[in-house]
Amino acid sequence: MKESRVLRAKAGVAVGAMLLAGLGVAGTATQANAATSWCNKTLGRFIGGGNGHELANIPARGSTDNCITAEGASGSHVTAIQNALRHCHKRTKVEVDGHFGPITEEELEIVQSRLGLKDDGVYGPKTRDKLKWRSTSGHCATLP
Questions:
Q1: What residue segments make up the domains of the chain, in order of their start?
Q2: Contacts of 100 (CB under 8 A, 6+ apart)
Q3: Most buried pick, 11, 24, 70, 115, via CB within 10 A?
Q4: Where does the chain cross the membrane (predicted)?
Q5: pTM greater than 0.85 (yes/no)
């Protein structure tokens, strides 16, 4: 009986140590994975271009634009990122096809680096705030 309790205690300590070690790794979140949900659509947001009241489509999930997306994703949220890269950041290799492939990832990395962000090729809140977005009328500007 006593041996069983000792083994359980040792197992508990080992599990606790593994959890703490995991927290150390998980605690070093990148800019992209600090958000909690994956983008799956767009929301209309006002940007600072043109007359200051231009509407642009921004990647979102539900009612929030605090989301992440990366290679392998597809949809209107990817199209919005590709429009920003191609038309506002002059990354002409990007095809605006709604599919986040390796070229979109590479070009996003280049833009992230130029904007002073971690160039991981993953779209997240910090990238959202620094990208110039293409408005529905074709102007480019950042979010206010």
A1: 1-30, 41-141
A2: 69, 70, 71, 72, 73, 74, 78, 81
A3: 70
A4: none
A5: no
Three-state DSSP state, 115: coil
Measure Cα distances from 22 to 12, 27, 31, 41 in Å.
15, 8, 19, 32
CA atoms within 13 A on the CB side of 53: 0
CATH of 41-141, one of 1.10.630.10, 1.10.101.10, 3.10.450.50, 3.40.50.300: 1.10.101.10
Amino acid at 38: W
State the Cα–Cα distance between residues 26 and 104, nearest whole angstrom. Answer: 27
